[in-house]
Request: fold
Amino acid sequence: MTKVLVLYYSSYGHIEQMADAVAEGARSAGAEVDIRRVPETAPAAVVAAAGFKTDTAHPAIEGVEALAGYDAIIVGSPTRFGRMSSQMASFLDQAGGLWFRGALNGKVGGAFTSTASQHGGQETTLFSIITNLLHFGMTIVGLDYGFAGQMGVKEVVGGSPYGATTMADGDGSRQPSAAELDGARYQGRRIAEVAAKLA
Reply:
C-alpha cells in the first residue's frame, strides 16, 4: 500500500483544514495516510499574543528522518511574505542528511498554501516549497486542470496549477471554501495515484 505523508504548519487552522482534505483525497485512492505538523518555533508569548490555534488532532512529526518512510510527501504552509513559513523552512532545513543520501529521490511531492488575499503570494509560496522538494529529488504533482473548480471568475476561489490554495482574509475570518477543499482532495488523490504508479 502506498504511504503518504501530509506535512503541514498552520497558525490559524486554515492549512490544517486543507491538510485534512488533502489526506481525504489520498485515502480515496487507497493510500495509507499520516497527517503530521511541524514543530512551532515562535516563542510562547508570540503564539499567545497572535492568537495562534494550538489545539489540533495531529501530532508533531518526530524528525526529518521520518520523511524517508513515505512514498509521497505533500507539504502545506501558509505564506509569509510570499514564501513558506519559517516553521516549515526550519524543519526542511534540517533535511541535509536525507538530501546527501538521496533518501527522497524518486518519491512524489506536492504543495498547498493559504494567503490572506488573492494576491498574497500563493504561487511564490508554492514554488518555495516545490523548490525544496525538487532539491530532494522528488517528482512534483500539482493541481492539474482536471480539477475544473479552480477555473472561472464568478466567485473568489483559490487554486493554481502548482497546488491547492485558499484565502483567509486579513483577519483570518474566511475559511476554506467547498471548491478549495475539493481542490485539496483532488490534489491529494492525484499524488497518491502517481505514487502508486511509480512504486
Q: What stands out?
A: DSSP finds six helices and six strands in the chain.
